[in-house]
Amino acid sequence: MSTKSLTTHQILPLTMAEVWDFFSSPRNLNEITPNDMTFVITSNVPEKMYEGLMITYKVSPFLKIPMNWVTEITHIREPFNFVDEQRIGPYRMWHHEHHFREVPGGVEMTDILHYNVGMGFIGRLASWLFVDRKVKSIFAFREQKLKEMFPEKA
């Protein structure tokens, strides 16, 4: 099995309450997803997530091919962390942990992602050729977008 991991850190100049308010709303996910993924939530989502929440999307992560993606919010420890896991989608496995902790100047957000493309040799090749870069670019886009949305306070 060829499971990959990616860990990112970002300081947001916000309070824990503001960070949790933003990230606990599934409706905000579209704002921090690159436009080229044509990301659309297709299920009715509540204002705030809860454990067991299933969210369905249409997304085009690779070669503009639209796919169904279903994630489940599996763990929540408000306001410190939550986990989403893919149930149906392009990966054999997708486990995304979101962690938040107060630090001087705001809140440190840490994302820990474990993913596996699956499909044996073809999946490993696809991962090497473009999937790993795409995953990194999604998180780089999100970091930049969050900087624009929540600029440093003077």
Task: Describe the fold and architecture.
This protein is an alpha+beta fold and 154 residues long. The protein has a single domain, classed as START domain (Alpha-D-Glucose-1,6-Bisphosphate, Chain A, domain 4, 2-Layer Sandwich). Helix content is 25%, strand content 38%. It has a 7-stranded antiparallel sheet, with helices on one face. A hairpin with a 2-residue loop joins strand 6 and strand 7. The radius of gyration is 16 Å and the shape is globular. The model has no long low-confidence stretch (mean pLDDT 91).
Brief overview:
Helices cover 25% and strands 38% of the residues. By secondary structure, the chain is α+β, with helices and mostly antiparallel strands.
Q: How confident is the prediction overall: mean pLDDT?
A: 91
Run of helices and strands = EHEEEEEEH
Report the uncertain regions.
Answer: none
Kindly report the oligomeric state of this protein.
single chain
**How many structural domains in the coordinates?**
1
The main sheet orders its strands as 1-7-6-5-4-3-2
Q: Give the CATH superfamily.
A: START domain
Largest beta-sheet details: 7 strands, antiparallel
Give the helix tally: 2
Radius of gyration: 16 Å
Helix amount = 10-25%
For the terminal residues, how far apart are their CA atoms?
47 Å
Tell me the total number of β-strands.
7
CATH class: Alpha Beta
Give the strand content.
35-45%
What is the fold named in CATH at topology level?
Alpha-D-Glucose-1,6-Bisphosphate, Chain A, domain 4
Helix-strand category: alpha+beta
